[in-house]
Amino acid sequence: MTEIDRTSIDQAGLSGNGGAGLARRPFDQKRAEDAVRELLLACGEDPDREGLRDTPARVARAYRELFAGLYTDPDSVLAKTFDESHEELVLVTDIPMFSFCEHHLLPFHGVAHVGYIPNEHGRVTGLSKLARLVDLYAKRPQVQERLTSQVADALVRRLEPRGVIVVVEAEHLCMGMRGVRKPGSRTTTSAVRGLLRSSASSRAEAIELIRGRLR
């Protein structure tokens, strides 16, 4: 049995379909174009002038790509696993990440560090799948705290590991372009589960490896 309590994850509504956030309907290209056109009109612009004539269609296509994570169950990314008899920490650092703050629909970007300790069977997944998982959750209207926890809890569901750690470092343009206007400030969030939460030595090892990449 894993040392992670999955009951709390299920109670939070994060089991089954890969967690909260999947779209309830397909992307509506026409509706998105109309919305962009209305926004331009609301700002006092002329959406029919030469420079903006094709902008609604371009923006709609861009958001379809940027929010692609709304249309794929993240659990499918981790569907293929392997029992490799490896029971030590697996850690991928500096995974580039781009997402959108759901409060202002402005970007935040940075890196994610994702690690886990396999269960007694040594169950692992492909290293690229960890990066794909981050990318999929990032391609949604998000808040950094939730994104961090969703990645960790997806690993708990699919790999049943003994421990998980996810650390995300990001700069939020909603803090740099507007409001407080503090460009360059970074926010760090973490989600730690199982042995990497309960064992100080295991947690310290993972954190040291994450910090050590900067040396």
Automatic annotation (TrEMBL):
<dbReference type="InterPro" id="IPR018234">
    <property type="entry name" value="GTP_CycHdrlase_I_CS"/>
</dbReference>
<dbReference type="GO" id="GO:0005737">
    <property type="term" value="C:cytoplasm"/>
</dbReference>
<dbReference type="InterPro" id="IPR020602">
    <property type="entry name" value="GTP_CycHdrlase_I_dom"/>
</dbReference>
<dbReference type="GO" id="GO:0008270">
    <property type="term" value="F:zinc ion binding"/>
</dbReference>
<feature type="binding site">
    <location>
        <position position="101"/>
    </location>
    <ligand>
        <name>Zn(2+)</name>
    </ligand>
</feature>
<dbReference type="GO" id="GO:0003934">
    <property type="term" value="F:GTP cyclohydrolase I activity"/>
</dbReference>
<keyword id="KW-0378">Hydrolase</keyword>
<keyword id="KW-0479">Metal-binding</keyword>
<dbReference type="InterPro" id="IPR001474">
    <property type="entry name" value="GTP_CycHdrlase_I"/>
</dbReference>
<feature type="domain" description="GTP cyclohydrolase I">
    <location>
        <begin position="33"/>
        <end position="211"/>
    </location>
</feature>
<dbReference type="InterPro" id="IPR043134">
    <property type="entry name" value="GTP-CH-I_N"/>
</dbReference>
<dbReference type="GO" id="GO:0046654">
    <property type="term" value="P:tetrahydrofolate biosynthetic process"/>
</dbReference>
<feature type="binding site">
    <location>
        <position position="104"/>
    </location>
    <ligand>
        <name>Zn(2+)</name>
    </ligand>
</feature>
<comment type="similarity">
    <text>Belongs to the GTP cyclohydrolase I family.</text>
</comment>
<comment type="subunit">
    <text>Homopolymer.</text>
</comment>
<keyword id="KW-0342">GTP-binding</keyword>
<dbReference type="Pfam" id="PF01227">
    <property type="entry name" value="GTP_cyclohydroI"/>
</dbReference>
<keyword id="KW-0862">Zinc</keyword>
<feature type="binding site">
    <location>
        <position position="174"/>
    </location>
    <ligand>
        <name>Zn(2+)</name>
    </ligand>
</feature>
<dbReference type="InterPro" id="IPR043133">
    <property type="entry name" value="GTP-CH-I_C/QueF"/>
</dbReference>
<dbReference type="GO" id="GO:0005525">
    <property type="term" value="F:GTP binding"/>
</dbReference>
<protein>
    <recommendedName>
        <fullName>GTP cyclohydrolase 1</fullName>
        <ecNumber>3.5.4.16</ecNumber>
    </recommendedName>
</protein>
<dbReference type="GO" id="GO:0006729">
    <property type="term" value="P:tetrahydrobiopterin biosynthetic process"/>
</dbReference>
<comment type="pathway">
    <text>Cofactor biosynthesis; 7,8-dihydroneopterin triphosphate biosynthesis; 7,8-dihydroneopterin triphosphate from GTP: step 1/1.</text>
</comment>
<keyword id="KW-0554">One-carbon metabolism</keyword>
<keyword id="KW-0547">Nucleotide-binding</keyword>
<dbReference type="GO" id="GO:0006730">
    <property type="term" value="P:one-carbon metabolic process"/>
</dbReference>
<feature type="region of interest" description="Disordered">
    <location>
        <begin position="1"/>
        <end position="26"/>
    </location>
</feature>
